[in-house]
Amino acid sequence: MTAPVFVVVGHVNRGKSSLVSTLAADESVAIADEPGTTRHCRSFPMRVDGEHLYTLVDTPGFERARHALAWLRERETSTAERSATVREFVRVHDADASFPQERELLEPILEGGFILYVVDGSVPFNPVYEAETEILRWTGRPRMALINTIGPSDHVEEWRRVLDQYFGLVRVFDTHEADFERRIHLLRAMRELDEEARTALDRAIEVLVEDRRQGLHQSANAIADALVDMLTRVESKRLEREADPEPHKAGLAARYYDALCERELALRRDLREIYLHRNLEVELESVEADGEDLFDLTTWSRLGLNRGQLAAGGAATGAVVGGTLDAALAGSSFLLGSVIGGAVGLASAWLGWARLAEVKLMGQPLGGTLLEIGPMRSPNFPWVVLDRALRFHDAVCQRAHAKREAVQLEAGEGEVAGLPGDVRRRVQGVLDRLAKARDAASVESARIALAGAIRSILEEREASRGAG
Ligand SMILES: Nc1nc2c(ncn2[C@@H]2O[C@H](COP(=O)(O)OP(=O)(O)OP(=O)(O)O)[C@@H](O)[C@H]2O)c(=O)[nH]1
Ligand SMILES: [Mg+2]
Predict the structure, then answer these.
(1) Model-level pTM greater than 0.90?
(2) Under DSSP, is residue 356 helix (H, G, I), strand (E, B) or coil?
(3) No. of H helices and E strands in the chain?
(4) Which fold has domain 5-193?
(5) pLDDT confidence band for 418 (50 / 70 / 90)
(6) What is the rounded distance in angstroms from the CA atom of residue 30 to the CA atom of residue 20?
(7) Rounded Cα gap, residues 204 and 194, in angstroms
(8) Which atom of ligand 1 lies closest to the CA of 14?
(9) Where are the domains of the chain?
(10) pLDDT in tens, 153-170
(11) 3-class DSSP state for residue 370?
(12) Pairing, β 235-239 against β 369-376
């Protein structure tokens, strides 16, 4: 079975490369505001595990469609001969080097490619496009039209009425907003182009769905790994006998803070890798910018956790006793800002940390003392990490590869707030086990259980998106 070739064509600057990028999940496709970004055809073979499923061809846009059509019409003999006339067009102008863009885009079609014609549904239809669609009709190849909407105006219905006359298949496909589900929908629609393409696309869909399932699995592991690392993290500093610990506290706290932030960032890089978004910016949100950061533990109500739930779940960590939660967590963000900025007295910063994480000063058998911070004991902390991980995962796993801007996590309603009670209790149960784990084997067993719980959460979310 040969892999079918789909040739993405359209007017210059209408989102052809965006379609290729999103459908191929390939962020290396050049996309830009300037018309004429794509100058030459480029093939993107869709391969999964070495299996070649289909090929997408990005092409330069139509530039002189009306002239090209006029040339064809002058030479029209019979309808049956139209595709031969298009071949003749390419051959003749190869010799005189005119119509470079039209020649480039027609060649892969004449070689047996299926046509995906992209239009911009935010600009009105005009007769230039009629020339383009007419040329495509002359090739006699199976074709589908896709309405992509770049700007804010809406001319989709107008386009649909026109395109229905020229194309057997017309679909709306927003190249910058399409998530995995919509990609699969489009591949299903493309099956209608041709019997042979159908077999190949069926296989492609099957492989992509399985690949996606594995992606969710890997993501759950990555999130669980990060959670366990962050929750068990300890920073320590050995001090000389008689040394005053005070001057060392702020530095150690800052190192601890940095290590946790760095681990969260590493998780984002892992998730980005899983979904083939290697160039996506994944910076952590800063407190200054939007008031939300990893240590914004005061927002526990946003996470949908009330004090009772936390107390029930988190009592094992010893941090929640009666009404002390609010006091313990109040101002933690401010506190961390001050650890970094050094604005507040070191002693009070250290005191604040002691409310979130264990801090210890221990005598050592061979003399001197060990100043230690961690592990994190705030019962809110893992929920904040999980919440942020879920939101980031959602953003990355649904992101179209044509959309290149940095990921922005929306502040507001947390994701863990929407989890059913039994799911939260399952997660909390594992967190409690982790807090009590005293050896590597019990930490590992908690990590596996956590990955399992997170996997169910991710799969549930994926299923609800598919249903929507
Ligand atoms: N917001 C938004 N912008 C889009 C969408 N599709 C394309 N664009 C933008 O439109 C511009 C052109 O997109 P490309 O995908 O490069 O278009 P093209 O048809 O390949 O352009 P040429 O190669 O120059 O013919 C880029 O700035 C894209 O970011 C969309 O669905 N939404
Ligand atoms: Mg392009």
Answers:
(1) no
(2) helix
(3) 17, 9
(4) Rossmann fold (3.40.50)
(5) confident
(6) 10
(7) 15
(8) 19
(9) 5-193, 218-467
(10) 999 999 999 999 999 999
(11) strand
(12) antiparallel
> Is the pLDDT score of 395 beyond 50?
yes
Show the tokens assigned to 121. 């549904």
- The closest of 451, 378, 464 to 418, measured between CA atoms, is 464
Separation CA 72–CA 9 (nearest Å): 19
Distance from the CA of 398 to the center of ligand 1, in angstroms?
A: 19
What confidence tens digit (pLDDT) does each residue in 306-336 have?
444 443 333 323 333 222 333 333 333 333 3
Torsion of CA 119, 125, 130, 135, to 10 degrees: -10
> How far, in Å, from the CA of 356 to the mean position of ligand 1?
47
| Amino acid identity at 200 | A
Top-confidence residue, 410 or 140: 140
User: What sections of 357-414 are H helices per DSSP?
Assistant: 381-398
Report the atom number in ligand 1 closest to the C-alpha of 30.
Answer: 16
Ligand 1 center–CA 9 separation, angstroms: 13
Picking from 198, 194, 205, 130, the residue whose alpha carbon sits closest to that of residue 161 is 130
Alpha-carbon span 422 to 419, nearest angstrom: 8
The residue assigned the tokens 């002058």 is: 74
Mean pLDDT, the chain, as a whole number? 83
**Distance in angstroms (rounded) separating the CA atoms of residues 103 and 100:** 5
Alpha helices in 16-126, H assignment, sequence order = 16-24, 65-74, 82-96, 100-110
Q: Which residues line ligand 1 (CB under 6 A)?
A: 10, 12-18, 31-33, 35-38, 61, 148-150, 174-176
Cβ count near 253 (within 10 Å): 26
